Amino acid sequence: MTSDRRRVRAVLFDLDGTLVDTIGLILASFRHATEVVLGQAVADDLLLAGIGTPLAKQMSSFSEQHAEELVRVYREHNLSVHDALAAEFPGVADVLRELKDDGYPIGIVTSKLSAMAWRGLRLFGLDEYIDVMVGVDDVELHKPDPYPLVHAAGLLGVPLSECAYVGDSPHDMEAAIAGGAIAIAALWGPFDREVVMRPAPHYALDSIAGLPVLLQAIGRPDVTGSE
């Protein structure tokens, strides 16, 4: 992990596993789709490995022949159980409110469909804090390619080099670093610490509660490491 001395002018977030706890929902939807379409169960570690990348890409890794059907069955099931299985991460609303009060524009960069991303945000009253959304259906290139982050930063009118990107997956960190953003690992998500830290993000947090203080401190030469 390296430190960074740039000032943060805007904050971009991943959604699943970062702002909203949807891991149980995602796993349930994957299990349903693979069992219905392929007639077999897939180990959870294989299901988790691709989180943060487009669903179609993940399904192709299980079966190229049945990828489209897997996506369709997944999305139908995900929609039907979304509100029952999605959960809050403690403190997220308070932190987003504080960031808005501090004057930070906020964007979401997610590998899920924009409509479902907004649904998850509205479910927990988080949508009012979000200025821009970039979903998988808004761009042709996807994480770990940095383009979705570049696009979100452009919508906010802030250079990506002056944006922090907070995400729970190694794909998030790879995209942030490749695009020149300030990469902040969200260690409260489903990935093991060593997996998220492998791309060498600039900072890491065990709890989202520490984010406002970290953002204010970035740029000081004494600020390094995990908070």
Task: State the gist of this model.
The chain is 44% helix and 12% strand.
Would you mind describing this structure in some detail?
With 227 residues, the chain is of the alpha/beta class. It folds into two domains: 10-21 and 88-217, 3-Layer(aba) Sandwich (Rossmann fold), CATH 3.40.50; 23-85. 44% of the residues lie in helices and 12% in strands. It is built from ten helices and eight strands. Helix 6 links the parallel strand 4 (106-109) and strand 5. Helix 1 packs antiparallel against helix 4 (67-85).
**Terminal Cα span:** 12 Å
**Estimated radius of gyration:** 17 Å
CATH superfamily heading of the largest domain: HAD superfamily/HAD-like
Helix content: 40-55%
The total of beta strands comes to 8
**What's the CATH topology label of the largest domain?**
Rossmann fold
Low-confidence stretches: none
Q: Structural class of the secondary structure composition? A: alpha/beta
- Strand order in space, largest sheet: 5-4-1-6-7-8
Shape: globular
What integer is the average pLDDT?
93
CATH architecture of the largest domain: 3-Layer(aba) Sandwich
Described by strand count, sense and barrel closure, the largest sheet is: 6 strands, parallel
CATH class of the largest domain: Alpha Beta
Order of helices and strands: EEHHHHEHEHEHEHEHEH
Count the domains: 2
Quote the beta fraction: 5-15%
Secondary structure blueprint with pairings:
Elements: E1 10-13, E2 20-21, H1 23-38, H2 44-49, H3 55-62, H4 67-85, E3 87-88, H5 92-101, E4 106-109, H6 114-123, E5 132-134, H7 147-156, E6 163-167, H8 170-179, E7 182-186, H9 193-197, E8 203-205, H10 211-217
Parallel strand pairs: 1-4, 1-6, 4-5, 6-7, 7-8
Antiparallel strand pairs: 2-3
Helix pairs in contact: 1-4, 3-4
